[in-house]
Amino acid sequence: MDLRLHWLARTLADIPEGDAWLGARERAILSRLRFSKRRSDWRLGRWTAKCALLAFRPDDFPAMPALDILAAEDGGPEAYASCGGAVDVSLSISHSHGRGLCAVAPGKCAVGCDLERIERKSLERSISS
Q: Which entry of 6, 59, 88, 120 is 20 to 30 Å from 109 by CA?
């Protein structure tokens, strides 16, 4: 069994036009998001997570529309195959400034990732302190 943590990054420019790659449950969630930035970030997170899952375990997952990335009870992302229920992986999704990051680990475990832009102003303050 693969016990390594995998990660993959994507950008807004990588997301295909339209929503055909989203599952029915995901499209329902997307339709309830009112603000365009929230919709854009949400789509980026789902695209990045699906690409990560398919890149690291391509034989284990269905095509993108049959793979849903939904919020678990604790609010974290969880993968579901539309024909088989929850997928036995752990996910973490982060997005910032038009870039998305997804960490994937096999099985159920605590996994996390965070993507933030380092601002030059912040570095100058840290150095002068």
A: 59
